[in-house]
Design brief:
Shape of chain B: elongated
Radius of gyration of chain A: 19 Å
Bound molecules: zinc ion
GO biological process, one term (chain B): prenylation
Number of strands of chain A: 4
CATH architecture of chain A: Alpha/alpha barrel
Family (chain B): Belongs to the protein prenyltransferase subunit alpha family.
Low-confidence stretches of chain A: none
Structural class of chain B: mainly alpha
CATH class of chain A: Mainly Alpha
Oligomer: heterodimer
Radius of gyration of chain B: 29 Å
Mean pLDDT of chain A: 96
Shape of chain A: globular
CATH topology of chain A: Glycosyltransferase
Number of domains of chain A: 1
Strand order of the largest sheet of chain A: 1-2
Number of helices of chain B: 15
InterPro entries (chain B): Prenyl_trans_a (IPR002088)
Largest sheet of chain A: 2 strands, antiparallel
Largest interface: A-B, 53 and 55 residues
Low-confidence stretches of chain B: none
Enzyme class (chain B): transferase
Protein name (chain B): Geranylgeranyl transferase type-2 subunit alpha
Number of strands of chain B: 0
């Protein structure tokens, strides 16, 4: 690690996340309301990974989540009065599970909402307007698994669509015919992992493609010949964990890259060094560091992107492998 | 947040900005409260439509408002409009989303709304056998291909634009020959060999042209090797071309020989060596080229061949059993 790079500034990142909810007088806070539910999940999970779950008030968080319930559709919106969408619905479920508050949820209704979004082709839509994406298939599989309701899913149809999105480079795209992209590789690998269908993955080819995401500066990109970005740290590493190939990445160089994207004054992590931090990159940067065995962090489950111990308690742990936790 | 540089600002500068934003914030909150209140009351008036236009111009990421806008159009405005008026309204929305995409080319919701507009073009201008009832549709979809090309000129790697391009190509009322899409990828690749998105698209188009026999595979492959070698020599550090090269080499020899043996088997229907070799080469395809092949079809073929082999060569049935049980 280069001597100019700071270590992970945990107390600073904790206060950065705590302060995010206190900027209600800022225009940007309101312009990003459509991401609020996801942002709370990112913040909470980052705090769990830094072992500071208590830094945000639990009851207040649960009340907020429940205030985003859309009674008409049976899903969650991103903010009160925003329409239900599968993206915010998964975040809501993940928050409730992490906070041990799933009892507040009308599970039957939310399962019905999720299943209603499956299309005849097997892929899922994000809402009733029908935008389709393998991201939504993963979200459905993840959510149903967390709720213990995978039995209600047409697994064959779900897997069949994902399998058709596999490209010759071993990766997966957002739809049939779409280019491989590290984010889509993550969602497809994780969905197939949860459904115990890793046989649909061409492991040697895909792990080659994933290993080639690392650039000379240590960072990872999401597609060939693109720039590095901290958020891909998690998507690439999580996919490699599921394939048990994290050691294909130069971990020292990637750790340095993620650490160099920290804002050493205000806290938070950005997409790359010198940029404005946000909670999304803060969460995925820290999650990446956890998979790389960075000292002092808590294990994160690469399949569900939630605390590993919690997923283990729920009996949902799959056979992934991350790097061993370093002592210092 | 991507690519926004971090600027250290003094406390005074931050305070000044906050003050300046205060009036913007008040206006934004008033507008957004007004629109959400109208939405709750199912206000589907033209006034409500105008309010959504205003709000979406400020914040095109507010997905709930795009949804509401579609409800206003479908439930409130289309029913009292002529087909000409509907066509004009949709054109307005295409302009609105175009302006938004110029600033936010990676916002999913804007792309989704465009797709919705195009899928709702009324039939016309021709009616009752006079004129072309799909005239409007043709006009707008053809124009859409032009629009997507403009956006790919601005960012040749934008995967939203590529994904949308595939939707447009599949939806054109009068479809374009795939050879013209091949020519498009040639132009994109020749202007920048690093554009893996174009190489990817090319692999899909060629697969389809070859499998339907619209392009002679042997001759076309030779041309591809020339193109690839040219790119390799231009910049051997560029991974796009190496990934494409691997696809091109792919399973060529195996495919060719399997085809030869398959036709021999049609003449020599009980040939043990034909069947044994087919199982062997098909298993090589399955194991070494998993991403390129239809796994379930190949597996089925092998099981069928092994069944035949047990009949024509019963002395070695134990080995055939073992291949089927353990190594398919
Ligand atoms: Zn990013």
């Amino acid at each position: 690690m280069s001597h100019e790079t700071n270590p992970l500034l945990i107390p600073l990142h904790v206060s950065y996340i705590q302060n995010l909810g206190k900027n209600k007088n800022d225009l940007i806070y309101h312009l990003t309301a459509h991401l609020r539910m996801n942002a709370i999940y990112w913040g909470l999970t980052a705090l769990c990974t830094m072992n500071h779950r208590e830094a945000l008030d639990r009851d207040e968080m649960i009340d907020y989540v429940m205030s985003c319930w859309d009674e008409e559709t049976g899903g969650f919106g991103a903010h009160p009065d925003h329409d239900a969408h599968i993206l915010s619905t998964l975040s809501a479920i993940q928050i409730l599970v992490t906070q041990d508050a799933i009892g507040r949820l009308d599970i039957d209704r939310v399962v019905k909402f999720i299943l209603s979004l499956q299309q005849p082709s097997g892929v899922f839509a994000g809402d009733s307007f029908g935008e389709i994406d393998t991201r939504f298939s993963y979200i459905a599989v993840n959510a149903l698994s967390l709720l213990g309701r995978l039995g209600d899913l047409d697994v064959e149809k779900t897997v069949s669509y994902i399998a058709q999105c596999r490209n010759f480079d071993g990766g997966f795209g957002s739809r049939i015919g779409a280019e491989s992209h590290a984010g889509q590789v993550f969602v497809c690998c994780a969905a197939l992992t949860i459904l115990d269908r890793l046989d649909e993955i061409d492991t040697p080819t895909l792990s080659w493609w994933l290993a080639e995401r690392q650039l000379p500066n240590g960072g990872l990109n999401g597609r060939p010949e693109k720039l590095e970005d901290v958020c891909y740290s998690f998507w690439v590493l999580a996919s490699l964990s599921m394939l048990k190939k994290v050691h294909y990445i130069d971990s020292d160089k990637l750790i340095s890259f993620i650490l160099s994207a920290q804002d050493p004054e205000g806290g938070g992590i950005a997409d790359r060094p010198g940029d404005m931090p946000d909670v999304f990159h803060t969460h995925f940067g820290i999650a990446g560091l956890s998979l790389l065995g960075y000292p002092g962090l808590v294990d994160i489950d690469p399949v569900y992107c939630m605390p590993a111990a919690l997923i283990e308690t729920l009996g949902l742990r799959k056979g992934w492998q991350s790097l061993e936790r370093r002592m210092r | 947040m991507h690519g926004v540089r971090r600027a250290r600002q003094t406390q005074e500068a931050l305070e000044a900005k906050r003050l300046k934003d205060q009036s913007k914030l008040r206006d934004y909150l008033a507008l957004s409260d007004d629109v959400l209140a109208r939405k709750k009351q199912k206000d589907w008036s033209r006034e409500a439509l105008r309010a959504t236009t205003q709000l979406l111009q400020v914040n095109p990421e507010f997905y709930t408002i795009w949804n509401y806008r579609r409800h206003i159009l479908v439930n409130g405005i289309f029913p009292e409009s002529t087909p000409e008026q509907i066509q004009d309204l949709l054109k307005d929305d295409l302009s609105l989303t175009m302006a938004a995409l110029k600033i936010h080319p990676k916002v999913y919701w804007i792309w989704t709304h465009r797709g919705w507009c195009l899928n709702n073009v009324p039939s016309g201008p021709g009616v009752d056998g006079e004129g072309d009832p799909r005239g409007w549709e043709k006009e707008l979809w053809n124009q859409e291909l032009f629009v997507v090309e403009k956006l790919l000129d601005a960012d040749p790697r934008n995967f939203h634009a590529w994904s949308y391009r595939r939707v447009v190509l599949a939806s054109l009322p009068v479809s374009k020959p795939e050879t013209s899409e091949l020519a498009y990828t040639t132009r994109k690749i020749e202007s920048n060999f690093s554009n893996f998105s174009a190489w990817h698209q090319r692999s899909k188009v060629l697969s389809s042209l070859w499998s339907t026999g619209r392009l002679d595979q042997t001759k076309s492959k030779e041309e591809e090797f020339d193109l690839v070698q040219n790119a390799m020599y231009t910049d051997p550090r560029d991974q796009s071309v190496w990934i494409y090269h691997r696809w091109l080499i792919g399973s060529e020899i195996l495919d060719r020989e399997i085809a030869v043996i398959q036709s021999l088997l049609e003449e020599e229907t009980h040939s043990k060596w034909c069947m044994e070799s087919l199982v062997h080469y098909k298993r090589l395809l399955l194991h070494n080229h998993a991403a390129l092949v239809d796994k379930s079809a190949l597996t089925r073929d092998c099981i069928h061949l092994l069944e035949q082999l047990r009949k024509v060569d019963p002395g070695r049935r134990a080995r055939y059993d073992e291949i089927e049980i353990t190594r398919l």
